């Protein structure tokens, strides 16, 4: 049950309404998911649908379970019921390594996950650790370096010399070495100055629109997140409280008052 404060958001959206927000066939589908950590259940009958090359942003209060949604899709939680599919593949019970390999799901860790004493290039190569062919990791590393000059210029320097924004770029691009189709991104803007926040969203925009990645992100900066994403979901107490086009949620007075400081 939603708490009083959030009850203005209305009825829990039905799967059919979630499907209608997708511009195309559903690619990532989460259905009736109950999940948590050990005996502690965090998500209750949670549904999510997004098409390929679309972006979806989860917003909501601290502790609502936003990161837990990403953890569940990636395989870090205990799932008690429901299912997760990517394309035609059911991935509900797969391990993270299997999900990356069979369904191309990549999880971009929150800040400070680079190896500070390794070079930029070595950090990128680490992103390909589970590739069968080492040459492929080298090849993809080269592709990433060619795409992002900021990293190329520092390829032989230790990651600790990077600025906050460059470090976030390295974290995102390290996930690209495995050529994933789905990117799970937890709070890309956290701890960054405004100019770097814009840079990170430009990179995500390019990955969605030029490289056709499907992006599911969590963003504390609800305004930025909803401006970026095609679809917005509001999560409260482990339940979906509202769903709409990102731009529609930005205009919604209740969402504004509760999450946009308006
Ligand atoms: N690894 C874990 N083990 C046990 N409980 C956890 C774990 N991670 C999160 N939780 C609990 O699950 C609940 C939801 O947490 P979650 O991190 O998903 O929230 P969130 O919406 O991402 O919050 P925030 O905005 O603060 O990041 C919280 O009560 C939290 O204490
Ligand atoms: Mg979180």
- Give me the count of strands: 10
Q: State mean pLDDT (0 to 100 scale).
A: 92
Major sheet: order of its strands? 6-7-8-3-9-10
**Biggest sheet layout:** 6 strands, mixed
Order of helices and strands: HEEEHEEHEHHHHEHEHEEHH
Unreliable sequence segments: none
Helical proportion?
25-40%
- Structural class assignment: alpha/beta
Give the overall silhouette. globular
Q: How many individual domains?
A: 2
Ligand set: adenosine-5'-triphosphate, magnesium ion
Number of helices, where a helix is a run of at least 4 consecutive DSSP H or I residues: 11
CATH-defined topology of the largest domain? Rossmann fold
What is the distance, rounded to the nearest whole angstrom, between the alpha carbons of the first and last residues?
25 Å
Strand content: 25-35%
**CATH architectural grouping of the largest domain:** 3-Layer(aba) Sandwich
CATH superfamily of the largest domain: P-loop containing nucleotide triphosphate hydrolases
CATH class assignment of the largest domain: Alpha Beta
**CA radius of gyration:** 18 Å
Describe the structure.
This protein is α/β, with parallel strands linked by helices. It folds into two domains: 14-111 and 182-255, P-loop containing nucleotide triphosphate hydrolases (Rossmann fold, 3-Layer(aba) Sandwich), CATH 3.40.50.300; 115-161, no CATH class. It contains eleven helices and ten strands. It has helices at residues 15-20, 66-74, 96-103, 120-126, 134-147, 149-152, 164-176, 194-209, 222-228, 246-251, 253-259, and strands at 26-37, 40-51, 55-59, 78-86, 89-90, 105-108, 182-186, 214-218, 231-236, 239-245. The strands form two sheets. The chain has a six-stranded mixed sheet, sandwiched between helices. Strands 2-1-4-5 form a four-stranded antiparallel sheet. β7 (182-186), α8 (194-209) and β8 (214-218) form a beta-alpha-beta unit. α4 packs across α5 (134-147) and α7 runs parallel beside α8. The two termini are 25 Å apart. It binds adenosine-5'-triphosphate and magnesium ion (MG). Residues 37, 40, 42, 60, 62-68 line the site of adenosine-5'-triphosphate.
